[in-house]
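Q: Got a minute? One more chain.
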Amino acid sequence: MQINLRKANAVQSEIKKALSGVRLEASVTVTEFTEDVEGTINKGNADLNAALQQKRRLIGALFEIRSAVGRANAGAGIGDTLTAIEQIDQEMSVVSALTGLKARTALTEINARIEKAKANTNERMSLYGDRLSAVETTVVDQATVDSAKAEVKQMKRAKQALQDKLLQLNVNTLIELSAETAATLKDEGIL
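A: Always. Here it is, folded:
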């Protein structure tokens, strides 16, 4: 039986849920009213063994699928695609920091403010006695901000294209399940 990688991911989640639902009861309670003590203990033992076997079959199916998905991911280039998406995310976070900046103040305006402060003989003082002659500005020009905005848009398009490719790979890439795994999953109602 074949399933695509998308389905394999959902199946793995269902197997994990099924595993957590299988309880291993290693004890039984018998009282003076229990008619067949040995039969009750034997039934408890049989139930425990059945639960153990069920868990082992589910674990086997889970890791068979995980291994097949790993091989398929490598063969289809999914790891490389995920790496490229992550790289774009990292680069986008760096470039995006520039998009929110205000462009630097014109050099003529900065020089004019400094000259005005120098010429001010009034010597306005702050609480700490410093002259108020500083001019604060960002260091990036408007062209850099605009370029960063355009680059972020391009990165978003590239990321979307990679995500579309990843979706296509996950839908079109198939893995083969063994007959035993397929039967286990059918018995559990997962497939």
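A: Residues 2-103+138-187 form one domain.
Q: Perfect, thanks.
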